[in-house]
Amino acid sequence: MPAFRTVRGMRDFLPQEAERMRHVEQVSRKLAQLYGYEEVITPVVELYNLLAAKSGEEIRERMYTFKDLGGRKVALRPEFTASVARLVATKMRNEPKPVKLFCVGSLYRYDEPQYGRFREFWQANYEFIGSSKPEADVEALILTKDLMDKLGLRDYWFKIGHVGILRGILSQEGVTEEQQNRIMQLLDKKLWEEALTVIRGSGASQNCLATLKKVFETKGKDFSQTLKRAEESVQDYEKAVAAVENLREILELTAESGVKLEVTIEAGFARGLEYYTGIIFETYVPEIEIALSGGGRYDKLIELFGGEPTPALGVAQGVDRIVLAMDKQRIPSKVARERRVVVIPVDEESRAKAIGLSSMLRGAGLSVEVEVMGRKVSKALSDADRKAVAHAVIVGPEELKEGKVVLRDMKKREQRVVKIKNLCEEILGSSK
Ligand code: AMP
Question: How far is the CA of 87 from the centre of ligand 1 (A)?
């Protein structure tokens, strides 16, 4: 039989890699608790129509779609927002607002595999439902900053825009929503010329084209100045001016709160997902060209799924890419080694006692392995060294007679005889 391999675009995570992925997940979950988000678990398989409704052409074409044995057209989820919006439009419809939901798990897109782009990837996703106020937008930004800080990432920055700028201009020009979606897709892929060709073909005025050219050039790190320039460029388009105003309010509120964000404002910024209606943002680190996280406001989606008109926004943190960024910045995982213990019986008679002691130590919250390969103490100790275990408990008949064992500090390479009844305290005390 040939050796099996993983399917293209799918990965195994070996222990060290899995540990790093789970570390990011744990920190994300802890953060959700700190901000009052409750975790929900939604299915990996959803109806195709739900997932296709507003995800945008790019994602729609790349979904893993199939008929299940009951003949339903289903797909593997390519994102979380549609599932959460479904929940809020149905089972959680009567929940008092705001509703704050967190979910984390795997997503599937038939993307071309490359650095940072996989067919199965993980997101930690935060959805904030029920508020149209800029306070909510500010929270999504601050929460994302907090996550980056908690993970130890450095020099990250936010790219920020507002879909209302481009859509405001295009809708005033009578460009249909379908054409707008197409244009946003092209801009998301940075295909400016192709986007301009579609805009020309849609019957937009010369003034519109000139305005858009200015909008695409309006970028900068100083948000007040950049938004002032953006406002001047779009002054003939009422809704676009309102979008710039909204962005200003959000960023001023952030600045006044004392939280410092490194930002680049891009007036012509577009994201592929069709459901955005307000602020959109992504985060980056200098070492990697692709975004680590992405988010934005989507005030119409819940209504589209049959719920009450409900303003909402969300942010998806890309776990895989955050791990890549941590690798590039050489940020070590903080897995506690201090609490790991190995228990080694010196002979066959001591095995049962070693097993019993390991249960006692686990009961005290220590991570314990028993020597099960029948190796001599010296061999078992060098294996413990290789695994960077903190303590070894050596169980032998001589000491057992007096209710004692040998406790070895693996790092200091020192050992002493301790009473079994004091063993937990001795280990816990020295690993503080
Ligand atoms: P999106 O859902 O497209 O807004 O993406 C949000 C975040 O999910 C991105 O910033 C990435 O970190 C992550 N992401 C999206 N697509 C992929 C992919 N194919 N592989 C790995 N991560 C991805």
Answer: 22
Two tokens, residue 186: 């092209």
Instruction: Tell me: pLDDT of 192 over 90.
Output: no
Pairing of β 279-285 and β 157-162: antiparallel
* Residue 206 phi, psi dihedral angles, 5° rounding: -60, -40
pLDDT in tens, 361-387: 999 999 999 999 999 999 999 999 998
Say how far apart CA 291 and CA 325 lie, in whole Å: 10
Q: What is the secondary structure of 59-118 as a DSSP string?
A: HHHT--EEE-TTS-EEEE-S-SHHHHHHHHHTTTTTSPSPEEEEEEEEEE--PPPBTTB-
- Going through 286-410 in order, the beta strands assigned E by DSSP cover 288-297, 312-318, 340-345, 367-370, 391-395, 404-409
Which residues on adjacent β-strands are paired with residue 415?
408
Residue 376, C-beta contacts closer than 8 angstroms, at least 6 positions apart: none
Is residue 206 helix, strand or coil? helix
Fold of 340-430: Rossmann fold (3.40.50)
| Ligand 1 pocket by Cβ (under 6 Å) | 79, 109, 111, 116-118, 121, 123, 273, 291-294, 316, 318, 320-321
Q: Taken in order 287, 289, 293, 298, is the CA torsion positive or negative? A: positive
**Of the candidate ranges 174-183, 216-225, 260-269, the one whose mean pLDDT is the lowest:** 174-183
Annotated domain spans of the chain: 15-328, 340-430
Q: Which fold has domain 15-328?
A: BirA Bifunctional Protein; domain 2 (3.30.930)
CA nearest ligand 1 atom 14, residue: 318
Cα–Cα dist 75/262, whole Å: 38
Q: Please state the pTM of the whole predicted model.
A: 0.91
Give yes or no for a contact between 256 and 143, defined as CB atoms under 8 angstroms apart.
Answer: no
CA distances to 45, 121, 382 from 72, in Å: 11, 25, 57
Instruction: Specify which residues 91 forms β-bridges with.
Output: none
Do 291 and 321 contact (CB within 8 A), yes or no? yes
Q: Within 13 Å and on the Cβ side, how many CA atoms surround 425?
A: 5
What amino acid occupies position 378?
S
Q: Count Cα atoms within 13 angstroms, Cβ side, for 350.
A: 27
Distance 123 CA to ligand 1 centre (A): 7
59 Cα nearest atom in ligand 1? 3
Q: Closest ligand 1 atom, CA of 78?
A: 2
